[in-house]
Amino acid sequence: MLLSVLIPCYNNDAALQQCLRSFHDGSGHSHEVEFVVVDDGSLPALKQPPYDDVRFLRQQHGGASAARNAAIAVARGRFVWFFDADDVVVGEHYERLLEVLRALPDDADLLHTGPMTRVDRLSGAPSLSAPLSSPTLRTTASSIMVPRSACLDHTTYIISRAFLVAHPTLRYPERRSLLEDATFILLLLDRATGVYANDSLRPYCICSAASSVTSGKWSSEQCTKWIPDIVCFLSALRSFADSHHDFPCVDALFRRYCYLYLRVLAVKGCPWHLLAAFRQQLIAKGYSPRGLKEHLLFNRMTLFVLSALCRLLR
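The structure corresponding to this sequence follows.
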């Protein structure tokens, strides 16, 4: 079997059915692809999808990471692809993806595709005009992680199942609920050697109507819960940067994400005492602002005023 598409789902049966339809409408490769759907304790339980190539698992609610890890354990394909239940696939790009996977050599640990596309859920899976003829090239993890185009979206990586079997500790961090997918990809890139990329492949569409647990303002409880997850991600990023001496932009990459999440927390109205503690953690990890915007945001008074203002405007 060529590919296992691993889909966790929780309380979103309608979206799951649309996701699976986008794969099956017009596809003639069911014998090469299996779908492992994990019902992560939905109430009521999800309906059994009406497709012969779907393996359906149910488990107690443990979060998306636990569901993805459970799917890895039963997958049978040469490659695995982590897909979110509230998104869809692009038909002709999916067909091209299967062609590329068939041609990958035995030493391929992962394939990095082009970026995701945002679509309106009501329009279903679109037809994209981007060319599909770009070659698949061998590359390096550090090349994928150049600061301006670094991609940590786990849905843009197709991973060799043999590689995951050979690294049994390389799994999604189940104690994390924010940036757990980006942390997993960092760990993956840190260990992978057979890295391939084809930027013209854009089979994944994120639906604009899809919900996110991180949308809107964050409460104090959410900030308290998610700051350790951000720190875990930045720790993995620091380790990645330190272990890739051939990568000339490691400091810029680390600073980019430190600045990004410092700004996110401030704009989300994170309470000042939590924001100040997070700032100190960044300093301890080696974050040093360089540009004017970084210096302005990193200033204690700027952070305090921005945090207070955002909380007042809720």
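The mean pLDDT is 87.
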